[in-house]
Amino acid sequence: MLLFSKYYKIVAIFTFGLLLNSELLASQTYWFSDTPPDREFAKKLSSSHDGLVLKSRRDGTSKLLWLREGEDPLTSTYVKEADAPLILLDAKKNLKTVAFKNKSYAEAIFKMPDEGFYNLFMIKRFVEDNTLYSITAKKEVLNHSCREGHDNIKEKMPPNAYEAAPVDIIRERMPRERFHTHVTSGDIVSYRILQKGKPLADASVTLVTQKGWKKTLKTDENGHVTFEMIRDYYPEWHEFKRRTRENFLVIVEYVQAQSGTLDDMTYDTISYKATASGSYYPSTKDYQSYLYGLLIGLFAFFATFLSVYLYRRRRLNVYQEQRLD
Amino acid sequence: MANHKDEIKHPFNLTHQASEATRMLRSITDDFPDNPEAMNYFYDLYKKVYCEGVSLHENKKIVGTMCVQVPEELIYASGAVPVRLCNGFYTDDHNGADFMPAKSCSLVKATLGMLDSKSTLPFINRLDDIVLPATCDQKRKAGSMIADMGYSVYDMEVPPVKESEEARIYWRRSIRKFAGELKQITGKKLSKSSLKEAMAKISRAQKAYRKLYELRKQKNSVILGKDVFMVTNAYFFDEIESWTEAVNRLNVELEKRVEEKYSAAQRRAPRLLFTGSPAIFPNLKIPMLIEESGGVIVGDETCSSNRMLYDMVSSDEWHLNAMVDGIADNYLKPCTCPIFTKNDDRKRKLLHMAKEFAAEGVVYQSFSGCQVYSMEQASITKALNDEDIPVLFIESDYSPDDMGQLSTRIEAFIESLKAKRRRNRK
Amino acid sequence: MKYFAGIDIGSTAIKIALIDEEKKILASRVTPTGSHFRKNAITALETTLSEINISMDDLSYMISTGYGRKLMKESDESVSEITANAIGAIEAGRQHGDIKTIINIGGQDTKAIQIDDMGTVTNFAMNDKCAAGTGKFLDVTAMNLEIELEELGDYHFNIKGAPLPINSTCVVFAESEIIGLLADGHNKEEIVAGIHYSIAKRTVRLAKRVGLEGNVYFDGGPAMNKGLVAAMEDELGKELVIPEHPQITTALGAAVLALEAYYDEMEEE
Amino acid sequence: MIKNIRKKINNGDLRRFRFWLQIFFFLLFVYGGYLSINLGQNIPTFACGFNSEGQGATCYLIPLQHQLALSSSTLFSMAGIAVLIGFSYFVLWFLVLNKGWCGYACPLGTIQDWITSLRSRLGIPYASYTWEQFKHLKKIKYILLVLMVVIPMGIGAGFFSHDMSTPFCMICPGRTLIPIFTGDFSQLTIDFSSKTKMILTTLGMLITGIFLAGSFFKKRFFCFFCPMSALHFMLSKLAFLKLKKDGSKCTKCGDCYTVCDMQIKEIADDVESKNILQDDCIMCLKCVSACPEEGALEVKFMGIPVFEATVEGYIKRMEKENKNG
Q1: Residue B106: which domain range?
Q2: What is the largest CA-CA distance in chain B?
């Protein structure tokens, strides 16, 4: 039954064929994913610390992101065509515009010449039924190669905010977070929601994991919201893979009573919807054991101690006979 | 044991040994001018011990040692005093010849003669044990003879090779066993602090000796070799602390001599190294002949002197195990005694000493009967000759018969060194 | 004219050499040492001096050598016979070309000396205590065979058979061995040659210890024994340089050293 | 002037000097990160990179293993140059101190020395290998070095799984122990996520236990097996700091051997070699300070004598030792 419903949903999406237009935007959720829609295509990409990247001799490292539609990270469809403006906040905090490439799917590609975090924003505004819909999709991407060393990580760690964004979802860094740190189940992730650079209070923030678990919270007066990543990965023990990378989605929704005009259309309400996607891994606690570690360590320690002790005892016997075979 | 407590029949000063010692001592003190003032301590010591029979180390257990390989640190740490029994008396050589083969080494004969006649050393009757390292064949076989005389003898095993790891292990075990044996003799268990103290005691003595050794490198020889032999020989039986003090006093005096540019020998006296069979009082025949013939012994490589005091023990950690192993290594590895298979270490040592002391020649004594020194002679001579250092090889014993011939040879050697120097100058 | 004297007081003979500034030998003498060697030495010296009509006071410098060197208080200094022998050999053997090795057989000892071009002793070897292979050995042989010492050479060359092997190296045992050989009916010639070869063998072995290079000079009383010389040459495999007066080489060396010492002293003054 | 300074150094108390220098390097490498110290990632000693918070520098073996694990095509392309550059930095660092890095700077070495001094204080005698054991054990470090190169290259070529990355680090007790000093116990676990990881972490903990007990009995227990030491030895002929021996002055008294933590027999017995540095040597220079032969052992920096064995210095140190013991 469950299988069927999933199947039904996918079939439905493909049947209607999605185009990115205003009518649909109002109700749907859009987000950026770095998982290629095409499995064959994925083979051309190389893995990096933060998902797949495209490496070429001419352009260096580039990141590819695809726009997806849907609230459930697992079943969201890939948008086939999109024409919304894209803004890139690069590792050096410069702003650039990027355009969608609509090959088979709406795809954004940008080069990452520097080490650090790149933020891609898709911002779309339109009026409908006296409501201004402000849609933002954000993706934070890390560019890092161990070959470059790990010398200046600390200064590159803090997140960069895009002040002009109608809503910016900033993932705050976890304690001791470094380039190599992954968000894992059980981690506390906290977000700061900014509206034009200022904290947005009382906005509803929803976290959706790949398995579809959802939780909605309201931001406090500083725009903060904190989730604990739940554990939703329960494979058979022999199928456990600690490199299981799953996506999660943070969706911010906020409605504000404010009137104005946009493109000669008036509105009296603004409805904001912003997304930011991330990825998470199984918690190390799921597969690492202190107990065994310490037991084995202590065993080795005492075994060595005992063998040295016994050896020394034995050596007190007078000359050991030479063994000949 | 009761039999060695017998009274000596003659008053000590009337024995042949006493008169032999007196003659030698007189010759040492009177034949040379300006002996260092501080040497009087040593002259008096010999006079007291060998001529007057004054006993030392009262109320202490005495362990006689028969070779340089016996770790004295362990003996001191066990509360006893080591006394080296190697003897240089011709009278005792004669006594020994009564029951030993005529061709055996004078040193062994004299030592056994002394032990048999129970004279010469005033405290010979008080020996609690004799440690006999199985070094050369003659000493090895002497063990049971000594035991038959009624002494308690401990045979200490010595490996014949010293380079191998097996030898090192064997020797370390031998030394540990010896430490156990000492406990039996003295009833005192070796402790960390007593061994440390013993090591410190010996290292103070060695420090004083090293200073003396350095002073002999002076271009102007500040002390004659015969006096240094007297100093180092005294270490055989003297109270170690007072010996150290006396050497330190001597060093102070010699330093003054250095400042005053005083020379104990003729200014141009050829500088010689002495090596081979040990010169032990009163058999200072060859050193005396050398220095009477106008040479000066600036350094020596013998077990009665340099080999006994030169190498110092170090330890990484101050536990008994580490200390005893360190001591063991020190008594085996640097030992240049020819009983060990290889000759290289002795060659290297002599070449280095010749350089260090600016020695012009080497006098190599081998006691007749000492096979190993005689056999090693050729290769040592070659090694030294290759570095343009002439060697005079002398095979001799304790008898004074060959003095005339020896004096000719030694003089000729010294003359040839002088001539060589003249030739090199031209 | 200056006179220099070298006096070699050996165990069997006292040898005296007198030279002038040109190192020319003016007079020489060999006399037995006897028991009062100091008295005998002075008498012999005075006799020698009187041959050229001078007295002790006319001597500029005198050096004594040999076993009795230190007791000869009349001399200016003493030098070991090895050094003196080397110098003497250089002097006496000059016309024979470079001398590198000297073999000296004395009354009680045998020496082999290696020298460089300057006459400096670079190495030497001497027999140990025992008198085997020394002049004494020849004395004893001659006495036992009841022939004169000077006749030994003639006997050596008159040999008919092969030289007899003499096994004993000790003078005392050799004596009884000779008597035994005589008793067995061996003739004297064979015994003498045997003795010569025995001495030659020992001496050559000693000489080999210092190395046998260049011309080998042979001196000392026994060098006058032609038979021994022949045996030695046979053993060595080369010819020996024999000086005109083999006995006085050492004394001559002492005299030359006296001359050098005299001029050295003059220079220093 | 220079003579006086030299004399002061030669008479100096090496033990104390070394103790403090080791502490200095320990603080620098283990806690330097807190003071924003970073000496880079090409350090020729175990400045463990798993100690993410405090590391003031990173052990070269980490980047080396990482770099060798690059896919073969990358490794032998331009990226290979970066590997070579990293290696040359490593060599440059190494050249300065030669194996002195081991005896003075290595935090793992310092930990072993602390354990040794604890044992010594407890009055338990140290262990030593027999010559036969020693000969066999000393080969291990070369085997480890080869594995450390071959396995990552095997990963790059696709023969092994990425779970085998940094194989040496996985079994290095530095990984488990050094992070503890900054309160990070996370390396003491067994990783059950894959068989490879499980085996490697179990080995790591076993070795940690053996290390702790082993270094309690045997001075510098681990250094016999250290592949860094093997790597050092291959370059040691080029280094500026040199340990020289004048065999003609040596009496083979064995004092140097007695104090040698690494049981290097050659230091006492080899009288031929001028450059006496052996592959096991950690250049602690205890041998020089225990040598009573004037100039028999000598430390030179670019040909300039720095520290030399002297009788005077030896006697001074021994008297002091004997007093304190």
Answers
A1: 2-425
A2: 69
The interface predicted TM-score (ipTM) is 0.78
First vs last Cα of chain C: how many Å apart? 20
Whether there are 3 or more C-beta pairs closer than 8 Å between C and D is no
Percentage helix, strand, coil for chain D under 3-state DSSP, each rounded to 5 = 60, 5, 35
DSSP E strand boundaries for chain A: 30-33, 46-48, 51-56, 60-69, 77-78, 86-89, 95-98, 100-102, 106-111, 116-128, 131-143, 168-172, 188-195, 198-199, 204-209, 214-218, 224-228, 246-262, 265-280, 288-289
- End-to-end, the C-alpha distance of chain D in Å comes to 33
* Interatomic CA distance for residues A266 and A130, integer angstroms: 6
Number of domains forming the structure of chain B? 1
Chain A contact for D212, CB < 8 A?
yes
B161 CB near a chain D CB, below 8 Å? no
Distances (CA, A) of A319 to A219, B172, B266, D129: 80, 13, 58, 17
List all residues of chain B from 129 to 148 with a beta carbon under 8 Å from chain D. Answer: none
Size of interface B-D (CB pairs under 8 A): 94
Q: How far is CA D157 from the centre of its chain?
A: 31
Interface check A288 vs D, CB under 8 A: yes
Say if residue C80 is in the same domain as residue C147. no
Contact D286 B165 (CB under 8 A): no
How many domains does one find in chain C?
Answer: 2
Of B311, B318, B348, which is closest to D253 when you measure between CB atoms? B311
**Residue labelled with tokens 């006691």:** B367
> Nearest residue on chain B to D320, judged by CA atoms?
B200
Give the domain range for residue C228.
Answer: 98-242
Same domain, C48 and C89: yes
Q: Which chains share 3+ C-beta pairs under 8 angstroms with B?
A: C, D
**Element at C19 (helix H, strand E):** strand C13-19
C157 and C212, same domain (yes or no)? yes
For the domain spanning D2-14+237-324, the CATH number is 3.30.70
Pair C223, C112 in one domain: yes
Count Cβ neighbours within 10 Å for each residue of D23-45 and write b for 16 or more, e otherwise.
eebbbbbbbbbeeeebbbbbbbb
What residue segments make up the domains of chain A, in order of their start?
A: 2-282
Tokens of A135: 């849609």
Shared domain check, C115 and C87: no
- At D180 the three-state DSSP class reads helix
Rounded CA separation B143/B129 (Å): 12
Q: Strand C59-65 to strand C77-78: parallel, antiparallel, or no bridges (unpaired)?
A: parallel
Q: Hey, where are the domains in chain D?
A: 2-14+237-324
Q: What is the CATH number of the domain that holds C78?
A: 3.30.420.40
Two structure tokens written together for B297: 């012994």
Measured between beta carbons, the chain B residues lying within 8 angstroms of C118 are 419, 423
Q: What is the pLDDT of residues B125-140, one digit of tens each?
A: 889 999 999 999 999 9
**Which residue of chain C is at minimal alpha-carbon distance from B368?**
C128
Q: Are residues C113 and C237 in the same domain?
A: yes
Write the pLDDT tens digit of every residue in B335-368. 999 999 999 999 999 999 999 999 999 999 999 9
Q: Quick one: C186 exposed, middle or buried, by C-beta within 10 A (0-12, 13-18, 19+)?
A: middle
Comparing D79 with D217, which gets the higher pLDDT? D217
Which pair of structure tokens corresponds to residue B195? 């061994």
Q: What is the pLDDT of residue D131?
A: 86
Q: Which two tokens stand for residue C267?
A: 């220079």
